[in-house]
Design goal:
This protein has 206 residues and is α+β, with helices and mostly antiparallel strands. It is 43% helix and 17% strand. It has 2 domains: 121 residues, no CATH class; 68 residues.
Amino acid sequence: MNPAEIEATLQAAFDNCEAAGCALTQQQKEILIQAIAQNQQISLENIDSASPNPLLELTTEERRSFWEFIKEQQQQERDWKIQLLNDWLLSRDSGKVQFIRDRYGLQWLNRIKPIHIAEYAENEVEEALSLKVGDRIEVSNGLWEWVQETGPCQREWYSCTVLQIKEAYDENNTTTSCIVRLSNGAEYEIQGVYSWNRYNWRWAED
């Protein structure tokens, strides 16, 4: 998680605590922020960005339980990581994924990125995480020009941020598109983001 993601996750957790009638004191908030910042620094120092997917450290059954938890939270339009952090802050049992807190902890959780979950989903022939506003992804120039794997015009990747998600319904299926903003400020709409254009975007590593 980058600093902006950490701040957003913590703020959402603080807000949820307050909404549940369990608002944290300023001192408690500062302790949590310092602890996470320290763990994040350790993670950055000790873990190579090209290290294997952290999900591979789980047992087969743990991965299955974790994946089921993620899908359940997504169906309820909740952020799975915020839900876990809320459980930890309020000392609630996390059910089938309680093992993450008991055996792996916050440092392991901070290593999990959307790209890791997408890799696992692809290996399990499952749908990957749905995109949401604010996600960082990379898009291929194959969206707007003819590219070849070998040749003068090859595939290139560009970082961007998801600005909007749109869904269109017909009698048989749902088609999702999204609008992204590239680093140069240009905006682009990706049609069929989960179907015919899935090949032209990927989760950003950072």
